[in-house]
DNA sequence: TATGTGTAGATCCTTTGTTC
DNA sequence: GAACAAAGGATCTACACATA
């Protein structure tokens, strides 16, 4: 019993230590992901193209050189958590009685009754009433309406096409046939005659609306892309400046060069030490560096 | 203050899909 | 069919909060 417990503890200790995402890392992650989606890194089936996580890993490493975030497990895990959260909020918003508060960036519900009845059947939604979720709008661009169900991400135009498809499904009353139709190309679909419906005018209007919305999103995405570039460049510059500054400080203290190199390694790996270092007198700085090196 | 409990989310492992 | 990457489920852990 005791032995088993010990080996279990040893196994636990062997595991990689748990890392916590900072707000900045999370924001950067979502922005990068959003950018990749606009560049077409998402497949029709809803999954991301191979190598996407590695690209995100590299981008995050560029922004936060000492963050140590890896495609696996960190990015994998974050992707999963955000997808789940998005799924919960999306499901709520698709029900009547729920709405999105654009100012507070949270879900609002019409009445306590509606809320209680919903959480009774959706335990995972507990705690999401008025809980701020500022990433929701970005995640909507990333996951679209497919949430976590593995369907392809949908653009507004796709959504309208879905509506049209659903009209056909209703007409035929046969989902299997509709699936065949959706998986086939237009040439095969056109061989089937669709009954003209009054709702076609509405669909056409929606289609036009969706197209203009798509154009608007394209422009917005271009701006996001530019912003990401600026953020990455500025973060690189800041990091570079900081490293140069620390190096100058260390060499100024007349510490041997090899000690400066070791100290710089430790200090840049532990961002919290930078502010402490800067707040100290020269004499204390030397002590601080020596102390860090001893604990290395 | 110490301990117990619940929860969010990080990690591990297996399955599934894609590419060559 | 092998290799690789993503997705999904199971498990574990850090943290917050409640209670004695």
What's the number of helices?
13
Mean pLDDT: 65
Distance between the termini: 36 Å
Which consecutive residue ranges, at least 5 long each, have pLDDT under 50?
Answer: 1-16, 147-210
**Number of β-strand runs:** 2
Beta-strand residue percentage = under 5%
Keyphrases for this structure?
13 helices; two-stranded antiparallel ribbon; 2 strands; elongated
Structural notes for this entry:
The protein is an all-alpha fold. It has 13 helices and two strands, in the order H-H-H-H-E-E-H-H-H-H-H-H-H-H-H. A two-stranded antiparallel ribbon has the order 1-2. Helix 4 (71-93) packs across helix 6 (136-143) and helix 7 (156-172) runs antiparallel to helix 8 (175-183). It is elongated. It starts with a helix and ends with a helix. The protein binds a DNA duplex (20 and 20 nucleotides) through helix 3 and helix 4.
Condensed summary:
This protein has 296 residues and is mainly alpha-helical.
Question: What's the structural blueprint in terms of helices and strands?
Answer:
Layout: H1 2-14, H2 23-38, H3 52-63, H4 71-93, E1 98-101, E2 106-109, H5 112-121, H6 136-143, H7 156-172, H8 175-183, H9 186-189, H10 199-252, H11 257-269, H12 272-279, H13 282-295
Antiparallel strand pairs: 1-2
Helix pairs in contact: 2-3, 2-6, 2-10, 3-4, 4-6, 7-8, 7-10, 10-11, 11-13
The structure holds a DNA duplex (20 and 20 nucleotides).
């Amino acid at each position: 019993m005791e032995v088993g417990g010990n080996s279990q503890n040893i196994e636990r200790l062997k595991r990689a230590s748990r890392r916590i995402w900072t707000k900045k890392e999370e924001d950067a992650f979502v922005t990068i992901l959003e950018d990749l989606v606009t560049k077409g890194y998402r497949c029709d089936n809803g999954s991301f193209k191979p190598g996407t996580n590695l690209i995100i890993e590299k981008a995050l490493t560029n922004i936060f050189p000492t963050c140590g975030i890896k495609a696996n497990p960190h990015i994998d895990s974050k992707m999963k958590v955000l997808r789940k959260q998005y799924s919960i909020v999306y499901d709520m918003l698709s029900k009547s009685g729920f709405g999105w508060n654009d100012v507070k960036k949270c879900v609002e519900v019409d009445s306590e009754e509606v809320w209680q009845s919903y959480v009774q059947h959706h335990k995972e939604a507990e705690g999401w009433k008025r809980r701020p979720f500022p990433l929701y709008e970005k995640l909507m661009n990333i996951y679209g309406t497919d949430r976590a169900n593995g369907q392809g991400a949908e653009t507004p135009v796709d959504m309208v096409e879905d509506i049209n498809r659903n009209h056909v499904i209703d007409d035929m009353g046969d989902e299997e046939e509709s699936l065949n139709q959706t998986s086939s190309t237009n040439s095969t679909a056109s061989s089937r005659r669709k009954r003209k419906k009054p709702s076609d005018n509405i669909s056409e209007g929606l289609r036009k609306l969706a197209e203009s919305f798509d154009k608007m999103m394209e422009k917005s995405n271009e701006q996001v892309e530019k912003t990401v570039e600026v953020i990455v460049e500025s973060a690189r510059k800041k990091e570079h400046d900081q490293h140069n500054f620390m190096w100058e400080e260390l060499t100024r203290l007349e510490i041997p060069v090899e000690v400066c190199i070791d100290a710089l390694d430790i200090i840049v790996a532990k961002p919290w030490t930078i502010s402490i270092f800067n707040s100290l007198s020269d004499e204390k700085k030397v002590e601080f560096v020596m102390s860090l090196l001893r604990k290395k």
